[in-house]
Specification:
Layout: H1 2-24, H2 33-59
Amino acid sequence: MNFFATSLIAYKAWSYRVDIKRNLAKTRRSKSQVEKVLALLVESGLIYMAFWVSYFVARI
């Protein structure tokens, strides 16, 4: 379930970034707050998933 949710957030972040780059490529240089928040969500989801994978592997 966590992998699915993280994948959906990652896809949404990627599609947002592609749209922004296509529409505002020449006017914007730095990351927006939305991009930073989406990156944080994806990264924290991956860390959380890695924790649980390592936990289950250690128990085997």
